[in-house]
């Protein structure tokens, strides 16, 4: 295992991009808030148990009967989990769970977590050899067991990795939702679907609720590389439970708060009150990384020449000593009323870019839903608009995925034809990755 340097405290910065000028009577203020964390995480962050904070990871492996069809899925899952275990830093707390219609501890199997070192990694990989497929699928039970295991130790970073190959057929949607509600805010979770027999909205819904990533691994041979990358990403986290705090003056309404890069995630409904006119929006755990958020507020009307603070955006993290949450950085959103038409009608490039990226995610989903329902005209119109948006924004990855579902006649105008035959893996990949965005070029 590699030796990692002594943990350092990540530093956060907040940059606000907006056109603060409004016409007389104008009310809607939009800003892109870029949050950047540097100096911790992947440069030697808190993931080591010997540092300022301890990390815990639970790997949940689907062991339902369908994992044996083909047998490469179960073999790929064992190899991928072993690769993830090898990626654990010394001192990281971890466990492995086998998921069927019930959840069972695979390692360490004592109701708690092991601490990663040469011996425990070897023991865990030996235990993985005994994994076999059989039974149903009840993902909520896997998540609840992961929560109990992660709660058994004093941890600052709590993370799950979940692999499934099928639909959640042995519990109701309400039971899964209740499990997600119970686990939200307690740990983050990356979710992966292997093969093509799983439900995209279930897997992406799990990742969304638990502030993680979702993706498809169509070929089981790709699982080991994907699990290694996920674990490396988890090992890079340095600060957990970071919140975006939005304070607004009297009379200002919040229209929405969305993460818009590296993927679109609507946080508006996840607000928790944080004092007079302030609310917190969860962002999960951070390493060395940068994310963009779109904040939209509605201010009271004012006369030309007036200006006001429309919102104050802060990054808030828990106090390790148990005191009040500590501010990490902040930025200001302003509103200035002017009679200069050029100033008030100019759209900030960052706001315009991410408004387009959010629309891109929406029209892809709408187009695929229309295609599945047999509405060819609706699907053609929506997916054509998606091609147009992807081309205009330079989102080459999404454009490439769209080209596997439609024949592109003219990307600039969004003129497309639906392909007569589409591989199921290609359609699922487009749906799963539809919310991934490209950063604006500044």
Q: Topology, pairings included?
A:
Blueprint: E1 11-18, E2 21-22, E3 28-38, E4 55-62, H1 71-87, E5 93-99, E6 103-107, E7 114-115, H2 118-128, H3 139-150, E8 157-164, H4 173-183, E9 188-194, H5 200-209, E10 214-217, H6 223-235, E11 239-247, E12 253-261, E13 265-266, E14 272-273, E15 278-286, E16 289-298, E17 307-317, E18 326-337, H7 341-345, H8 349-372, H9 376-393, H10 396-402, E19 406-410, E20 415-418, H11 424-432
Parallel strand pairs: 2-18, 4-5, 4-8, 8-9, 9-10
Antiparallel strand pairs: 1-3, 3-16, 5-6, 5-7, 11-15, 11-17, 12-13, 12-16, 14-15, 17-18, 19-20
Written account of the structure:
The chain is α+β, with helices and mostly antiparallel strands. The protein has eleven helices and 20 strands. The chain has helices at 71-87, 118-128, 139-150, 173-183, 200-209, 223-235, 341-345, 349-372, 376-393, 396-402, 424-432, and strands spanning 11-18, 21-22, 28-38, 55-62, 93-99, 103-107, 114-115, 157-164, 188-194, 214-217, 239-247, 253-261, 265-266, 272-273, 278-286, 289-298, 307-317, 326-337, 406-410, 415-418. Strands 4, 5, 6, 7, 8, 9 and 10 form a seven-stranded mixed sheet that branches. Helix 1 (71-87) runs parallel beside helix 6 (223-235) and helix 9 (376-393) runs antiparallel to helix 10 (396-402). The longest helix has 24 residues, at 349-372. The protein is globular. Mean pLDDT is 93; it is low at 1-7 and 41-52.
User: Biggest sheet, in brief?
Assistant: 7 strands, mixed
Discrete helix count:
11
Q: Could you name the ranges where pLDDT drops below 50 across 5 or more consecutive residues?
A: 1-7, 41-52
Q: Say what oligomer this is.
A: single chain
Strand content: 25-35%
What would you report as the Rg, rounded to the nearest angstrom? 23 Å
What gap, in angstroms, lies between the N and C termini? 38 Å
Mean pLDDT: 93
Helicity level:
25-40%
């Amino acid at each position: 295992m590699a030796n990692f340097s002594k943990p350092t405290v990540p530093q956060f910065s907040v940059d606000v991009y907006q056109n603060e000028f409004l016409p007389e009577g104008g009310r809607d203020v939009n800003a892109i808030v870029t949050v950047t964390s540097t100096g911790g995480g992947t440069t030697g962050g808190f993931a080591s148990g010997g540092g300022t904070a301890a990390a815990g990871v639970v790997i949940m492996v689907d062991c339902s009967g369908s994992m044996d069809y083909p047998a490469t899925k179960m073999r790929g899952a064992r190899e991928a989990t072993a690769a993830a275990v090898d990626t654990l830093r010394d001192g990281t707390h971890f466990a492995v769970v086998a998921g069927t219609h019930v959840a069972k501890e695979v390692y360490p199997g004592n109701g708690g977590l092991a601490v990663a070192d040469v011996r425990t990694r070897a023991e865990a990989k030996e235990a993985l050899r005994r994994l076999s497929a059989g039974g149903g699928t009840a993902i909520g039970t896997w998540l609840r067991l992961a929560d109990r295991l992660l709660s058994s130790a004093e941890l600052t970073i709590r993370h799950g990795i979940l692999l499934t190959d099928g639909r959640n057929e042995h519990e109701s949607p309400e039971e899964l939702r209740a499990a997600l509600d119970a686990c939200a805010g307690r740990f983050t979770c990356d979710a992966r679907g292997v093969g093509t027999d799983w439900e995209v909205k279930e897997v992406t819904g799990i990742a969304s609720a638990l502030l993680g990533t979702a993706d498809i691994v169509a070929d089981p041979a790709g699982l080991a590389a994907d699990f290694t990358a996920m674990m490396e990403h988890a090992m890079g986290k340095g600060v957990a439970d970071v919140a975006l705090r939005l304070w607004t003056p009297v009379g200002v309404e919040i229209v929405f708060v969305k993460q818009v890069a590296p993927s679109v995630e609507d946080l508006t409904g996840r607000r928790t009150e944080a004092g007079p006119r302030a609310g917190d929006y969860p962002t999960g755990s951070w390493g060395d990384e940068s994310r963009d958020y779109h904040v939209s507020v509605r201010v009271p009307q004012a006369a030309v020449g007036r200006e006001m603070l429309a919102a104050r955006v802060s990054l808030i993290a828990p106090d390790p000593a148990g005191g009040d949450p500590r501010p990490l950085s902040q930025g200001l959103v302003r509103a200035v009323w002017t009679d200069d038409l050029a100033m008030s009608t100019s759209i900030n490039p960052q706001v315009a870019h991410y408004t387009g990226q959010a629309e891109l995610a929406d029209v892809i989903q709408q187009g695929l839903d229309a295609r599945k329902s047999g509405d060819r005209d609706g699907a053609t119109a929506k997916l054509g608009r998606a091609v147009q948006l992807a081309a205009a924004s330079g989102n080459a990855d999404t454009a490439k995925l769209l080209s596997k579902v439609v024949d592109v006649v003219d990307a600039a105008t969004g003129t497309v034809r639906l392909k007569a035959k589409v591989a199921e893996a290609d359609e699922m990949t487009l749906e799963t990755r539809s919310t991934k965005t490209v950063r604006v070029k500044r």
